[in-house]
UniProtKB/TrEMBL annotation:
Keywords: Signal. This is Surface layer protein A domain-containing protein. The lineage of its organism: Bacteria, Bacillati, Bacillota, Bacilli, Lactobacillales. Residues 1-20 form the signal peptide.
């Protein structure tokens, strides 16, 4: 075989294998089945930050992530004021998210209750 024939045969085999891999893989879809059970108004309580890498959500339905993590609002041990609770079910697991407002900061958000500890 000449060099050109070998090159063409190698390219055809590579394209066939790559095409087979691409067509046989199935796409993975990630979605969370989230359902709000109820909201609860609370008297303002002070909590402290336990986990700085907790995700912040912009709504109580827990479907819009904020650009920031909880560490953007303070360090571990810094106080936050909690005003409201959202009881949700995510993929069959019951969770509680708190609406918070940081001291000396205007923005509010929703954070998982496990990232905070009551003072």
């Amino acid at each position: 075989m000449t060099r050109i024939t070998k090159l063409i045969a190698l390219m055809a085999a590579t394209a066939g294998v790559a095409g087979g891999i691409i067509t046989t893989t199935t796409p993975i879809t990630a979605s969370a089945n989230t359902k709000v059970r109820y909201y609860k108004n609370m008297k303002p309580h002070t909590y402290k930050i336990v986990k700085q890498r907790a995700q912040i959500y912009t709504s109580g339905k827990i479907n819009h992530k904020s650009l920031f993590m909880l560490g953007a609002y303070g360090d571990k041990g810094d106080p936050l004021t909690i005003y409201k609770a959202s009881h949700v079910t995510i993929n069959g697991h019951k969770r509680v998210y708190y609406m918070f407002k940081g001291h000396f900061r205007i923005p509010t958000g929703w954070v998982w209750s496990g990232a905070l500890k009551r003072v």
